Amino acid sequence: MIQLSNISKSYRTDTIETLALQHLNLTVPAGEFLSIMGPSGCGKSTLLNIMGLIDEPSEGQVVLAGQEVTHYNGRRMARFRNEQLGFIFQSFHLINDLSVVDNVELPLLYRKVGSKERKRRSLDALEHVGLSNRAYHFPNQLSGGQKQRVAIARAIVGRPNILLADEPTGNLDSHMGDEIMQILLRLNQDLGTTIVMVTHDERMARKTHRLVRLSDGERVS
Amino acid sequence: MLHNYLTLALKVLRRKPFYTFISLFGISFTLMILMVLTSLFDAGLGKNQPLTKRDYLVVSPYAERSRTEPDTMLVIDTLTLAGGEVRYDTTEEIAQNVVSNSIGPMSYRFIMDNLVDLESAERVAIYSDGDFTDGFIDGRKFTFSSYYTNADYWRVLDFDFLYGAPFNEADIEAAAQKVVLTDKAARIYFGELGPDLIGREMALGRRTFTVAGIVSRPLADSPMFGGDIYLPVTTADARALASNEIDGGFSAIFEATSPRGRQAIKDEIEFISQNFQFPPESDYNGLRVSSATVIEGYAMATVQEQDPQKALRVLFIPLSILVLLFVALPLINLINLNVSRVFERRSEIGVRKAFGAEPRDILYQFIFENLVITVIGGAIGLLLAILLISYVNANDLLGITRLSLSYQVVFYYLLVILLFGLLSGLLPAYRVSRTNVAAALRG
């Protein structure tokens, strides 16, 4: 479960203070597939980053999987991200110099998992996204949809409880977008993974359990 | 983990050939020069034969005789005129002024009478250098640099005997006409080298000597062992041996029982110098027999300075600064290259951190990557150094000095590589390990 209470986030430059999020409350029950929509710059990504512990709120409280994590130190946050969270990005963020399977095993590198076990679990994750035949290819040999499937495999290889996806279909055509969406829906259904997805695409959003709209850092629905 | 880092490191190197080339060039060239320099110092100062006992030795290459005379200076401080009478106050200063001095090697008799029985010395090597002796064979003439030595010379300095043995006390006693020569001299004179040369005869000057031993030529030139041929001291010119003067053609090397024992030897030599009684008719009244460690002696000879401590400073401080600068330049260049290189990989770092990498994981990864390139550069540098050293040796580019790659040199080299890798990687890695994840993923 994700519980955000009274979250505000402001960015300060030399002269102006920009308010990205204002007193936002949001609860995502375990197993829910939630989508967040809103115009550019409304604070969607900031919200996702705060849930993902890669950005800190200026105010408010974050509870993830029953743990109050707002004031964790860097080390505990890193540990928590590694074990509980998975990330999917719009621009994939694969490491081009590493093979597909080496990309997928990345989260396991930061746990004490032996290399054989890492490989086994990475191949499993790739099978889950239907890419086991590309395990030893390199990212630049793959299509956009395939890259995003690798990114999903990387996000789920550590069996996280929560998956955070920042416009996962934003860089893909509608056909490939649908494919990715199918995979996410299946993960949510089969494994019960909680998924929070930021999207611009109304059609994708409608396939999820619930839709939250943001505008100027505030919830409008 | 390491496999993953290594794969990535090698990929990154291959992806940017030009960057890799510049880095590798800087690293390998710097390390090559360092290696050759170290090797040069090792040849001159390392504990190689015949200087394996380097840290036990005190060298006394020469003695300084001086004449000091009191020098009186009368200063009129005040001058007053009182009642038509001149009065004055004066100060009288008596200084010791050196009016003449003379520095040079000592006579055989002086060393035998005053220096061979030092209590703190295990044994004393006596040698003369600077002589040249003509060798004749088959109507041809060769000129050899020749040393006259005592028997302990061969114990204090552990030459590498290829064949035969040195001459001993009995040979010295009997003034036996035996000769020890270097492999190079043997090849020149006999045109060959082998065990059957032992016992062969050599016509040297007007006498005939029997070959007792053949030693391999030391790595570097030194006044202590620069000879082509070595002869028993008792076969030297009788007048030189009998001379009652302090100065002559001989020097001494003292062997202490331990490295710390060297100070006792120096103190004893100082004591002997200060209490030396000159004969009444002598032109001199002060004596100082030099005493220095091998390294001090090297510095003194190199910079022509008689005070050992000052000689060390004059030689090694500018040299260290030069080496430091020489290493610092490519190091700074490498740091600079690294900083821009790692910042190109911000997105990768962002992803790694998002998936649970801690700053120290990132730090280790980038230091490791940097060590990989330094080790590759080091290997190339080592290869270049070996090539350069064999080229220098094959063509005698440094005169008598030959360079070698001893275990010590290679050990220092590995240490330098590690240090180089750590230093040049640390700063960029530290900076990049503190990357803000959200910002890195956005950009």
UniProtKB/TrEMBL annotation, chain A:
One of its GO terms (cellular component) is membrane protein complex. Residues 2-220 form the ABC transporter domain. One of its GO terms (molecular function) is transmembrane transporter activity. Gene3D superfamilies: P-loop containing nucleotide triphosphate hydrolases. Pfam families: ABC_tran (PF00005). The keyword Transport applies. PROSITE patterns: ABC_TRANSPORTER_1, ABC_TRANSPORTER_2. CDD domains: ABC_MJ0796_LolCDE_FtsE. Keywords: ATP-binding, Nucleotide-binding, Transport. The keyword Transmembrane does not apply. Belongs to the ABC transporter superfamily. Macrolide exporter (TC 3.A.1.122) family. PANTHER family: ABC TRANSPORTER ATP-BINDING PROTEIN YTRE (PTHR24220:SF648), IMPORT ATP-BINDING PROTEIN (PTHR24220). This is Macrolide ABC transporter ATP-binding protein. It comes from Neolewinella marina.
Automatic annotation (TrEMBL), chain B:
Its main location: membrane. GO terms for molecular function: transmembrane transporter activity. It comes from the Bacteria. Keywords: Cell membrane, Membrane, Transmembrane, Transmembrane helix. It is found in: Cell membrane. Residues 20-270 form the MacB-like periplasmic core domain. Residues 321-436 form the ABC3 transporter permease C-terminal domain. Pfam families: FtsX, MacB_PCD. This is ABC transporter permease.
